[in-house]
Give the backbone structure.
Amino acid sequence: MEVEEMEDEGPSSQSELPHSEEFQLPQQESPHLGSSDPVENVLVDKKAVDKLTEGLLSHYLPDLQNSKRALQELTQNQLVLLDTLDQEVTKFRECNTLLDLNSLFTEAKVYHNKLVNIRKEMIMLHEKTTKLKKRALKLQQQKQKEALEKEQKREKELERERQLIAKPAKRT
């Protein structure tokens, strides 16, 4: 039984003969400072590599898949948050637009009131000018009447003076 387990795990030492499925790692220099001896070739069984790979994957793959799912969920949540944030920004812009509209309406109301006041003033000034024109016309007519009366009075005075002047009698 031990022999089978050893075969499944691959050769444990270099004394065993390599199979056709074994790999040979290239020689590397030793990282030790004083030693210039090359590292011995290591033979690895393909089954052992497959099992080690399988074991490594079975150990780390679930965590990696969970991390991948968590990252996908986070990405999805970020997209939802970005959409929500974009909607909120749009709402704020609309609110600012409404505030701008409100200020424009307020300003329009102020200018409308100014126009109404100007119109009232113009109507009042028109009425005053009309009254002044009527008064000026009456005064002009009165002056003309007075001047006419004065002229008539003067003519009467002249006529009276003519009549008072002695006239030579006619010789017959």
Remarks:
- The beta strands are 22-24, 43-45.
- The CA atoms of residues 36 and 122 lie 112 Å apart.
- The first helix runs from residue 2 to 9.
